[in-house]
Structures are given as C-alpha cells and as structure tokens.
Predict the 3D structure of the following.
Amino acid sequence: MKKALFAALSVLALTLFGQTAVKAESGLDFVLSNDSGLTIERVYISPSQVSSWQEDVLGRGTLADGDRTTIRFSRAERNRYWDIKIVTSDGEEHIFQDGYDLARIYRITFQPDGNTYQLHYWYR
C-alpha cells in the first residue's frame, strides 16, 4: 500500500514539474515599458531578416503611459535579432530596425528623445 501511494505521489510530482517546465520563459522574453507620454496602441516584433511585420503582440490591448508588459516568445523561437515597430495613440509609427539582440536584453523602454522617440534597453 505504501509503495503504491509513493508511486502515485511520484507520478503526480513529475506531472506538476513537467507542466512547470513547459511554461518556462523563453530566453527572448522581455519587459516593455512605456514612458513616452502617449498610449501605445500596437507593437510589432519581427526577425531582422524578415521584410514584413508579424502580428501585433499587444493583441486587443494597449499600453498606457507609465505601464509595462512582458512580451513573451515561444521557447521554440530560434531567431536572435529582432526589429520593433510601435504605433502610438497619435497615429505615428515608430520603427526601430537595429536588430535588437533579445537573447541579451531583458527590458526595453519606449521614451521621448527631443523631437523623436527612442528605445532604451538593459542587458541581462
């Protein structure tokens, strides 16, 4: 009886541990902060070598000034360098095609820089 109970608990522990491992973060995940004074309406992130933008990673949401969100990637994603396009509430598109190494960056802040906007980032 004790062996059967131990075996059942072991299987349960392995199952729970396995589920945790599947939900682990990707090495490309990062926090996007909005310090622009505007609302971010859409964010597009695409591999640098691709000439078109992928889906809006905010989905139906927006990112208000002063807020932040975590941008998550599939663990299977193998691209390392990414470009970013941010569309703000004033209808402006801000395109950053610098090939950001998201394997090394853990936080990006969208902020004003004089008459334009920039991305400020921190390395892991």
